[in-house]
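During the no-cost extension, the postdoctoral fellow (Dr. R.K.) reprocessed legacy sequence entries with the updated structure-token encoder. One reprocessed record is reproduced below for audit purposes.
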Amino acid sequence: MHALPEDRTGVRMKRLRLERHLTQRAVADLSGIPYSTYTKTEQGVISATPHVIAAFARAIRVEVATVVGQPYAEELRADELDVLIMPVREALDVFDLGPDPDIQPRSLTELGDEAEALCVAVRAGEIKRAASNLAGLIEETTTAAHELGSTEGWLTLASFYRTAYDVATKLGFPDLAQLSLARMDWAAQRGSDAVIGGMYHYMRALTYLREGKYRTGQRLVNLGLSTLQQADETREREVVTGQLHLGASVMAGRAHNKDQALMHLGEAERIAGATGESVQVHWLAFGPTNVKVHRVSVLAELDQYGEAVEATSDLHIPKDWPKSRTSHHFAEVARAQMWTGKIDASYQSLLKARKAAPQQAKYHPTVRETYASLEAAYRRLPENFLSFGSWLGAAHA
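Re-encoded structure tokens follow.
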């Protein structure tokens, strides 16, 4: 008995390939994926790595979200999250209409506190809580920013747009994430903040990372680094600069450019040595811990799964680290452990990912892909493993 549906990533890849009347050999040639790797991925013999998924999506010209099956509509509906997306879209649409006469906004101090609280909620993995309050707060702050025309007002609005990006990304709505980033850039420019501008380029680069468009992503990293040079020399600037290097290291790793990946990782490590743990600076969780976590990710992206597992041996996640980052890390560890044949350890890491941030883990493609591979590896599925699968895809159990 299996808990997840047969509509796994490999099955979707086959369906998308056949819809385009392509052979497996043709897709392998178009994507640059080794033929044996591609066929085994389609068959479910091996899991679909982010590198393979992105290469496949580029080759047949579809979004990565289509390949991995996002958004997971039935699960979102079961969790009553789908109804929260449309109000956010509508709130993003009124950005340039000026003050709403029917809204009496609170003070910027109160709205700033609300913006900070949403950042905290997202990093605690409380996606539904953040999404539930987001649309109304965007509309209220849009009116306040237009009425006051102050730097503080625009940057508070930019923070809410950033949260919209976070929610959209975690729930699998790439188009909404892109729109949120465009709005964030619009507000940041009015706030004339180079550091926020650097963050915008970082987040935009991540969208290209997910789509496997590494050259464009690297160009955005370079633009972000250049933008940050316009800011005053502060710890805040260094933290965002370091985070850009971390994002670039994963991008280079996924592109299988080892030298560039390690260069960016080394630069981030140097910066982290000066800044120390800076978890709350723009809630990027930057610092020595995040550098070590990204080292695991980079090694996994380079298909050096044994080294990635070894890199976790001296890695301690602080108790006050953001639960969303902790959950993402354990999802990455589970993938590396699965590839090295550590089946039971991989499942335990999936459980840790769920425990840290259950709402995030449920909609994380790496969690779902790793679970599907573990399910195929188990000859006899233990009851708690089936329960995990039912939780991931409740509507299909």
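The chain has a mean pLDDT of 92. Residues 322-397 form one domain. The remaining legacy entries will be reprocessed before the final report is submitted.
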